[in-house]
Design a protein that fits this description.
alpha+beta, Alkaline Phosphatase, subunit A, Arylsulfatase, C-terminal domain, Jelly Rolls, 3 domains, 8-stranded mixed beta sheet, 6-stranded antiparallel beta sheet, 14 helices, 25% helix
């Protein structure tokens, strides 16, 4: 009996020792923070020295404490695919997430970096822009905590601004969205200062709509385009947030235990002309950010579309003050993170590499033999300083060591290099889902971009329509007309059909809880079928099932139509299709 008791006692001691060792390993694991900006041009980081008007003291300090990557890349020149690639650590074309309109079915089957780290004992949290499906489902992708504020409207969260747990649901904003994400991230650090954490802070900045409050725009006085002032202000708000987070790390002695990465999701959209259009009149225009001195913009696999701000810091582990010139990619984040957390992965799980040996100087060779991209009808390979860029059947070869601005196409001068790179690119692209170096053909917008940026042609780009001086968009409560004209007269909206197609009015950036009720009080002089269509959070386009039809009578009398929209998720976009002729509408009531 004594022998059995001793053995049991030893087994208990050994088991306890194993638990203590495991616990110590978890505590010793480094924290990981990924900041992700939105439509943030390569130039707009003070540390690069490309422009003089940007103010990013905290990000510049972060770069001085670690590595400033001069050739850091996103995986796409557009939001959704670049975010999918970052989160999974695998090129998004492998799971059919090629563009903003792609199905998310492939992404939903993948394992994210958050899921891998959560299983390794990390506390995980997401803040800000998601853009990979309904925000209510972010926690299904490995994030324990969610604070998805990316605008001044209700948003999905299961924690408060001060990091306290609440049931997942919609909460109203109590701070400017950039500030709110930063404050919530700092609160999560306070909460988990004694265990490892992974924070993904995805600011919706400086992406339109440009909405910086006065406290930030006041930092940039003087003559400049208002869109540039707004971009600088939103970037300054991000910089303040990075400062708050890094100060919180320092407060708890976590600076030397935390890997911090800052990356942009793609280059700035310039719309070629960088028109300083009214902020409320051209929500999808130039966002005020710049890609100087790089050529091209968002929507191109030119350097300006996919080379972004890129900083990596881990004081005490990665030597500070480095400028790193070898090409690296956002796919490397997942590979680096799982290596730090000792997470086992299978061959083919990830496309990136662990950057630590390279940034620490232990490995002198480049992290990548080649980097590859495919986005819609464009594809690219970069091998050392050679870059082959294809847009449809167009082809360009650049030596980036002397031509980072991509001004001199060398494809005819070095056909052997072009042929070799094209072969490598084709082999890689044929491994994607679906295979091929191009998906579809170049549209007119991309042709214009390639003509202007890569071939130096002058092209006529129509200027966006701007509202008149009485600011009609405000008078129509945010409703915009299509296939017709919408004006406001004495508090009544008047929709006039001016095309063969039936007119409709639309309103986006909504956050209607369901079921939602729409009450219309209208007059129409033509009569005919009408309908209300809606789009819910996570849907990329309107679908036929999300539509209710009714009939409008031709009458000089007011008629009321009350419609309940049986949506299953938050409604973000509504279209009201009406008969031709002239329609008068009293203010449209929507609830809740």
């Amino acid at each position: 009996m004594k022998r059995i008791a001793v053995l049991l006692y030893c087994a208990w001691l050994c088991g306890d020792a194993t638990r203590v060792t495991a616990s110590q390993n978890i505590v010793a694991a480094p924290n990981i923070i990924v900041f992700y900006s939105d439509d943030h041009g390569h130039a707009d980081l003070g540390a690069y020295g490309a422009v003089t008007d940007v103010r990013t003291p905290n990000l510049d300090a972060l770069a001085r404490s670690g590595v400033l990557a001069t050739n850091g890349y996103s995986t796409a020149p557009q939001c959704v695919p670049s975010r999918g690639g970052l989160m999974v650590g695998k090129f998004q074309g492998r799971f059919n997430l090629d563009n903003n309109n792609s199905s998310l079915d492939g992404f939903n089957k993948e394992t994210t970096i958050a899921t891998r780290l959560q299983k390794a004992g990390y506390a995980t949290a997401q803040f800000g822009k998601w853009h990979l499906g309904p925000t209510t489902e972010i926690s299904r992708h490995g994030f324990k905590h969610v604070f998805s504020q990316n605008a001044q409207r209700a948003f999905s969260a299961n924690i408060t601004l001060d990091g306290k747990d609440i049931p997942m649901g919609e909460i109203p904003p109590t701070a400017y969205h950039i500030d709110g994400c930063s404050q919530a991230a700092a609160a999560v650090i306070e909460r988990y200062k004694d265990q490892p954490f992974f924070l993904y802070v995805a600011y919706r900045a400086p992406h339109t709509p440009l909405d910086a409050p006065k406290k930030y725009t006041d930092r940039f006085p003087g003559e400049m385009p208002e869109r540039r002032r707004q971009a600088l202000a939103m970037i300054a708000a991000m910089d303040d947030g990075v400062g708050l987070v890094t100060r919180t790390l320092k407060k708890h002695g976590l600076t030397d235990r935390t890997l911090v990465v800052f990356i942009g999701d793609n280059g700035a959209p310039l719309k070629i002309q960088k028109i300083d259009s009214p902020l409320q009149g051209d929500a999808g225009g130039w966002d005020g950010s710049v890609n100087t001195p790089l050529n091209g913009e968002k929507g191109m696999l030119a350097e300006g579309g996919m080379s972004t701000p890129f900083v990596v810091a881990w004081p005490g582990t990665i030597p500070g003050g480095q400028t790193y010139d070898y090409p690296i990619t956002s796919l490397d984040v997942a590979a680096t993170a799982v290596a730090l957390a000792n997470v086992p992965i299978k061959k083919g799980d990830l496309d990136g590499v662990n950057l630590l040996p390279h940034l620490k100087g232990e490995t002198k060779s480049p992290p990548h033999d080649s980097l590859y991209w495919r986005w819609m009808a464009q594809s690219t390979i970069r091998e050392s300083n050679w870059k082959l860029l294809r847009g449809g059947e167009r082809e360009y070869l650049y030596d980036l060591s002397v031509d980072r601005e991509e001004k001199n196409n060398l494809v005819s001068k070095h056909p052997d290099i072009a042929n070799r790179l094209r072969g490598k690119l084709k082999t890689w692209a044929d491994s994607l889902n679906p295979p091929g170096m191009a998906l579809g053909v170049m549209n007119q917008n991309w042709d214009n971009y390639f003509d202007y940026y890569l071939e130096g042609k002058k092209i006529a780009i129509p200027k966006p329509q701007t509202p008149n001086t009485n600011d009609a968009s405000k008078k129509t409560a945010g409703w915009l007309a299509r296939n017709g004209t919408l004006v406001s007269k004495d508090g009544i909206m008047v929709l006039s059909s001016d095309k063969a197609k039936a007119p409709f009015i639309a309103r986006s950036s909504l956050a209607l809880k369901v079921p939602a009720d729409i009450k219309l009080k209208i007059k129409n002089n033509a009569g005919g079928p009408a309908s209300i269509a809606w789009r819910v959070d996570g849907e990329k386009d309107f679908v036929s099932k999300n539509r209710i039809t009714f009939v409008v009578d031709a009458s000089d009398d007011w008629q009321t139509h009350e419609v309940r929209l049986p949506a299953t998720a938050k409604i973000i976009h509504i279209r009201i299709h009406l008969p031709g002729g002239i329609t008068q509408l009293e203010p449209i009531q929507m609830s809740p």
